[in-house]
Amino acid sequence: MSIKKRKMEHIEVTLYGDVDGITSTLMSDVDLVHQAIPGFSIEEINIGTKFLKKEISAPFMITGMTGGSEELMLINSTIAEVAENIGIPMGVGSQRIAIENSEAEESFRIARKKAPSIPLIANIGYPQLANYTVKEIDKLINLIEADALAVHLNVAQEVFQPEGETNYYFEYLEKLVDLSRSLDIPLIVKETGCGISMETANLLEKHGISYVDISGAGGTSWIGVEMIRGQRRNNPKSKSAKLFANWGIPTAASIIETRYVMNNAFIIGSGGIRNGLDVAKAIALGSNISGFALPALGEVIRGKASLTEFLQSVIFELKVGMLLTGSKDVKQLHKVPLVISSKLLNWIQARGIEVLKYEEIRKHIDGKLY
Ligand SMILES: Cc1cc2nc3c(=O)[nH]c(=O)nc-3n(C[C@H](O)[C@H](O)[C@H](O)COP(=O)(O)O)c2cc1C
Q1: Which candidate in 9, 214, 251, 338 could, as Cys together with 196 as Cys, close a disulfide (CB 3.0–4.6 Å)?
Q2: Would you say the CB of residue 271 lies under 6 angstroms from ligand 1?
């Protein structure tokens, strides 16, 4: 199947298949502590922050999804226009197709045309680091005048995809280091719904990576997507995909694990983030900003106004969460008291995370990389 056809099927299955929230982000095991006298009004809250040397008007982004054909160009165009109006960052989907087929270029270029000022993030898969030259990757970056390049990790999807590549070798980390030295923009390592563990965070830190999108489990399940695609074709792997459909590190746990290891990294807390309270929790747990993909896609199909309305409701809910925790800005949100219970508490205990040490780390999140 061509990359273009596969991309179209991915959009259809994520929109209409039952692949969202198969497992929990464990955000429900996080309570932000209510403050009855916040000390300011909701109008005084400042949710602006910095990302990739640019001011952004809210601490969340729309993570990379698509590009590659005329239909998919429309999706990138709509997201870019709305993201620019609101002032939040946007990622494009894997740009591999634009290396292999120059006709696909415009579907990515449109993002920068519609969004001249926001941070835009280019995208390529980890296994592709083996095949492409720095020059080719530079071309992808230039297509959208990207502010950063995301290298995505999706081994759990690839293993169930008939055309999948499971060559996730440690050696490519060296290529990552070389690439990051040759580029003049930061490199973001990004999961795609299974989360980053302490062990992976350690590897990334050792290789000088300082921007990570943890994209944890609890939102779009890419194993679920491949299960549905496999069922359509009577692929025997689809039965096994069902077994693994809830695989991954829940987003809340992955934010904690990654921050515990990468104390000074810029962390994007995403995966199953569905509203402004989730954004507030992701930031309080240790992310610098949060992000989501599927909810934005769902609104894009209904049009610009729907996406705008959704993003505005996320902003309102985030501000309510900040008001009720006494956080006048994003820096204060990193420091709010929170209670971790049930499975998330078991998780961090089982993983040997010392709560007091974690509390110290999250309250001293560094602004250097902003
Ligand atoms: C239709 C669709 C296509 C996606 N394609 C890509 C991609 O090409 N590259 C990438 O890094 N992530 C891709 N993602 C993953 C998202 O960026 C995100 O990490 C993941 O879906 C979890 O977030 P969510 O639960 O908010 O959807 C895609 C997501 C969706 C819904």
Answers
A1: 214
A2: yes
Distance CA 248, CA 227 (A): 16
Q: Assess whether the C-beta atom of 294 lies below 6 angstroms from ligand 1.
A: yes
CATH top-level class of 3-29+55-316: alpha beta
For residue 175, give both structure tokens: 């290529």
CA of 93 to the centre of ligand 1 (A): 8
Given a contact cutoff of 8 angstroms between Cβ atoms, the answer to whether 172 and 155 are in contact is no
pTM above 0.85, yes or no: yes
- Alpha carbon nearest to ligand 1 atom 14, residue: 65
Q: Cβ(275) to ligand 1 under 6 A?
A: no
Q: 340 in helix, strand or coil?
A: strand
Question: Helix, strand, coil proportions of the chain in percent (round to 5)?
Answer: 50, 15, 35
Give the model confidence (pLDDT) of 1-39 as tens digits.
788 888 999 999 999 999 999 999 999 999 999 999 999
Domain boundaries, the chain: 3-29+55-316
Ligand 1 binding pocket includes 96 (Cβ within 6 Å): no
* Cα distances (Å, whole numbers) of residue 12 to 95, 106, 225, 274, 297: 19, 22, 10, 19, 10
Contact 178, 205 (CB under 8 A): no
